[in-house]
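Lecture 7, part 2: worked example. A protein chain together with zinc ion.
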Amino acid sequence: MTQLKPGVVHGAAYKQLVAACKAGGYALPAVNIVGTNSLNAVLEAAAKNKSDVVIQLSNGGAEFYAGKGFPDSFDAKVLGAVSAAQHVHLLAEHYGVCVVLHTDHANKKLVPWVEALIDHGAHYFKEHGKPLFSSHMIDLSEEDIEYNLSESARILKRLAPLGMSIEIELGVTGGEEDGVGSDEIDNDKLYTQPEDCLKAWDMLSPIGHFSLAASFGNVHGVYKPGNVQLRPEILKNSQALVQKTHGTAANPLDLVFHGGSGSEKEKIEESLTYGVFKMNIDTDTQFAFAHDVGKFVFENDKAFKHQIDPDTGAPYKKLYDPRKWLRLGEEGMVTRLDEAFADLKSAGKSLACGSCEGKKVSCG
Ligand SMILES: [Zn+2]
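Predicted complex, written out as structure tokens:
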């Protein structure tokens, strides 16, 4: 397996990364970030675990990145994502790992957000010879499948010439993610039909690279055990149908596991054998960040009410300095990601070439 230059991957390098995951029976965590603290924590965790990683933004995460006070909400969603991507382009190679830059769920009303990001991607491509993002997700799973696939095909036609990929969704991931999706969904929609996966393959693979979020009972968020019935065999059956119909090698589809937070470890492990190369994680890393900040605030509550201890006169500056408690949030996130890299078996498997790190040579 050829090694890759550390930093943001796209095009052939991205496809090589996906192929390596599937051949090696491992997947990359795809972590939603909302600012430089969570973003840098993901880079730190990936470097620490010598794993490649997916960094992604939801529309709400992108808006938050630009600032909640930004005058226009749509512009904030676009420019926040662009700003985060530029941050990753600048820093990722110095962390010495390969990073896939991606945006999360965009339903019908968020398609203009993705189209605006593709415009920025095309502009970036002209200046730098590479796209801004590795891939974007279009989630039209609430629409009928014909519209879902024809609209995804239209967008993939814009992405492919820029060396970019698309992620689509068939069937519905339960729960809600940043205002996209719903808690009230027919049970049968939570399970993708293999025939629909075949339709997606037929329509999209001639145009460019696509990945597929197939639903197998997965749900966004973390719920009480027993509420979620994961059926990874749906992924297996979808792979088998495409393989049989087109005479491809095993596991032709590049599958994505949404709602990875709180999932049973053995189901995660099983899904890896069916061509899952990416597992989204958001809720668990949010909690990890909040948990460690919360613990510190609870244990040092006086430092968050007074600049100087009212009884002893001791200054609290070292405790309320945001670098103190934001760093604890980052460390909490890194620790949770250690677990994700282990669950997904990607630790130690980075394709980033160590010897060309920081030098102006390309090894991929
Ligand atoms: Zn999702």
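Residues 73-95 form the longest helix (23 residues). Confidence is low (pLDDT under 50) at residues 357-362. Keep this in mind for problem set question 3.
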